[in-house]
């Protein structure tokens, strides 16, 4: 897998990434064991750029990715996003938070 340089600090990421959003919700039933296998298989194939966000779940996706990469974090370039917030009791309620 080709790697791409991100920014000016030498950060490298695989040219292809793995979007993890659907591993915790949005597209139907999910299975944690299968999702972790998918992340490990992606890494075996050279895909080391994983994308997640705190609003997926909310928080569940970042926690899932964390469990999957435990012990191999140094092999992963991890992207996340912030700013869209969801009510934990009612995920259909959304808002924005621009605080760093």
Characterization of the model:
The protein is of the alpha/beta class and 100 residues long. It has one domain (3-96): NADP-dependent oxidoreductase domain (TIM Barrel, Alpha-Beta Barrel), CATH 3.20.20. Helices cover 22% and strands 23% of the residues. It has helices at 32-44, 60-68; strands at residues 3-6, 11-14, 17-19, 49-51, 77-79, 84-86, 94-96. A three-stranded parallel beta sheet has the order 3-4-5, with no helix packed on it. Strand 3 (17-19), helix 1 and strand 4 form a beta-alpha-beta unit. The relative contact order is 0.18.
Percent range of helical residues: 10-25%
Class computed from helices, strands and strand pairing: alpha/beta
* Total tally of structural domains: 1
The tally of strands reads: 7
Mean pLDDT: 91
Order of helices and strands: EEEHEHEEE
Examine the secondary-structure arrangement and name the CATH architecture. Alpha-Beta Barrel
CATH superfamily grouping? NADP-dependent oxidoreductase domain
CATH fold type: TIM Barrel
**Radius of gyration in whole Å, from Cα?**
14 Å
């Amino acid at each position: 897998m080709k790697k791409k340089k991100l920014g000016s600090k030498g950060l490298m990421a695989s040219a292809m990434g793995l979007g993890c959003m659907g591993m915790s919700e949005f597209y139907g039933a999910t299975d944690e064991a299968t999702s972790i296998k998918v992340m490990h298989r992606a890494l075996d194939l050279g895909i080391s750029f994983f994308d997640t966000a705190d609003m997926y779940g909310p928080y569940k996706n970042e926690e899932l990715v964390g469990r999957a990469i435990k012990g191999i974090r140094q092999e992963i370039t991890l992207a996340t996003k912030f700013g869209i917030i969801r009510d934990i009791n009612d995920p259909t309620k959304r808002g924005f938070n621009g605080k760093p």
